[in-house]
Design goal:
The complex is a heterodimer.
Chain A: E1 13-21, E2 24-29, E3 35-39, E4 45-53, H1 58-71, E5 78-81, E6 92-93, E7 96-97, E8 124-127, E9 137-144, E10 153-158, E11 162-175, E12 178-184, E13 196-197, E14 203-208, E15 218-219, E16 223-224, E17 227-233
Antiparallel strand pairs in A: 1-4, 2-3, 4-17, 5-14, 6-7, 8-9, 8-13, 9-12, 10-11, 11-12, 14-17, 15-16
Chain B: H1 6-12, E1 16-17, E2 19-26, E3 32-35, E4 41-43, E5 53-57, E6 77-83, H2 87-94, E7 104-111, E8 123-136, E9 143-149, H3 165-171
Parallel strand pairs in B: 3-5
Antiparallel strand pairs in B: 2-3, 2-7, 4-5, 6-9, 7-8, 8-9
Classes of the chains: A mainly beta, B mainly beta.
Chain lengths: ~240, ~200
């Protein structure tokens, strides 16, 4: 089943915080005051909080209601985009943005194989080598874009796990347009060399976190207050 | 992957440890492999898991009980609570419970390095037998409680274990280590099954 993508342009958050999360415990302080930390996360998972989603007209209120019904309190997954374009390796030439050299927007009938499909990607990249399950080192080759930097996000589309987002923790080495990156989280699934690396709109399969809701609170029968919610990365569920 | 060594021991004594607990349930039609953590992990074959395989990260073992290794043969019962998010676990909770009763359950432990790679082959701490499955379906979180016990836990005086040949053979069919135990107890003779 194809998962729906969060309608970022309709339900636009004022803030988005995407956090690597997991469970760790302090073992308690010893007599000397020192304590050990145990990280049980096994690598952790993503959480994303969308803050102050303004519902200033009827369309947005209805969209929030529809999505509230669709998400089913966290029982259904969807694709959460991480709008990181301001920090992405956008093409840069001569001290200025090189976006002017991009192809023009396409016709309505053109299909670009990713959602939402309205034009060619700004950045084009692929894996230079295969990545094993739980692998943390990925070599990425950019054919259009600036050099990768630590802290940037990208996504890979896996066969079973679908869209998963990764953050570059450190650039280990560079060779031409290829950067050897240390990433987090560990690879969700093995993926072959040459797989496309999504940099324009990194995205991840998520669900509504436990206890969260995006149900709008209606005031006066016409308006609604802004909503905020936290989402958590979800495991793939082949049966849905 | 190496066995537990001094480097691993030094890592476990450090300020941050990254433990991972693995469960291997030897059930039909195939072993059930789960581990604490979110993503999946692949382990190499070893003496316990002869085929190796991918351990599904079920997110967490809800309520990981303390495990005592069988020192001096103390019998014990352990309950694991797993979230029913995996299709296999859901099937076990719903209709396939009979396939898992009597299955062997191994609990192992390893630690990950800073790049989340296992530092050593899992130390399989205990081997138990599953006898009770208890699904708990709730609106917010459904779980499956798996109750497993040592081979002599069903005995009336389960707190005491005896090193009899039949008891040892029940867990280790090809090991004759305790076959002649009765010859070394001149004042008492323990018969199997005993009350």
């Amino acid at each position: 089943m194809t998962l729906f993508v969060w309608p970022y342009r309709l339900l636009t958050p004022a803030t988005q915080q995407t956090v690597p999360d997991g469970a760790s415990q302090e073992a308690g302080r010893s007599l000397s005051g020192w304590g050990q930390t145990a990280d049980f996360s096994g690598g952790g998972f993503w959480t994303s909080t969308l803050g102050n989603i303004s519902l200033f007209d009827q369309d947005r209120i209805l969209a929030a209601r529809a999505w509230s019904a669709h998400l089913r309190g966290g029982a259904r997954s969807f694709i959460m985009p991480c709008w990181d374009l301001g920090f992405a390796p956008r093409p840069w030439a001569g001290g200025a943005s090189a976006l002017g050299g991009l192809p023009a927007l396409a016709d309505d009938g053109d299909w670009f194989g990713w959602e939402p499909s309205f034009g060619e990607p700004i950045m084009v990249a692929g894996l230079a080598g295969a990545v094993a399950l739980s692998g943390v080192e990925m070599a990425i080759t950019l054919t259009r874009g600036a050099g990768l930097k630590a802290g940037q996000h990208f996504s890979l589309h896996h066969d079973v796990w679908g869209w998963r987002m990764y953050r570059i923790e450190r650039i280990v080495s560079r060779s031409g347009n290829t950067a050897e990156c240390l990433v987090w989280p560990p690879g969700r699934e093995s993926i072959a060399a040459g797989a496309s690396v999504e940099l324009d709109v990194p995205r991840c399969e998520m669900k509504l976190a436990s206890g969260q809701s995006i149900e709008p609170v209606i005031r006066g029968g016409r308006m609604a207050e802004a909503i905020s919610a936290t989402f958590v990365e979800n495991r793939p569920n082949p049966s849905t | 992957m190496s066995d537990f060594d001094l480097a691993a021991a030094a890592q476990l004594a450090g300020g941050v440890v990254r433990p991972g607990v693995f469960l291997l349930i030897d059930a039909w039609p195939g072993p059930l492999r789960v581990f604490t953590g979110f993503g999946d992990r692949e382990l190499e074959p070893d003496a316990v898991d002869a085929e190796g395989g991918i351990y599904t990260g079920v997110g967490q073992l809800i309520g990981l009980p303390a495990v005592s290794q069988l020192i001096n043969g103390v019998a014990q019962r352990i309950e694991y609570t797993l979230p029913i998010g995996d299709e296999t676990l859901l099937a076990l909770a719903d209709s396939e419970a009979d396939t898992i009763r009597g299955a062997r359950c191994f609990q192992g432990f390893t630690a990950f390095d800073e790049h989340w790679r296992p530092m050593f082959r899992p130390l399989w701490l205990t081997e138990l037998v599953i006898d009770v499955l208890r699904p708990n379906f709730a609106a917010d979180a459904s779980t499956l409680t798996v109750s497993a016990a040592t081979v002599t836990s069903a005995r009336r005086r389960a707190s005491f274990n005896r090193w009899t040949g039949p008891a040892h053979r029940a867990a280790h069919p090809t090991d004759a280590f305790c076959d002649r135990t009765s010859l070394y107890a001149p004042l008492t003779t323990v018969k199997w099954p005993s009350k």
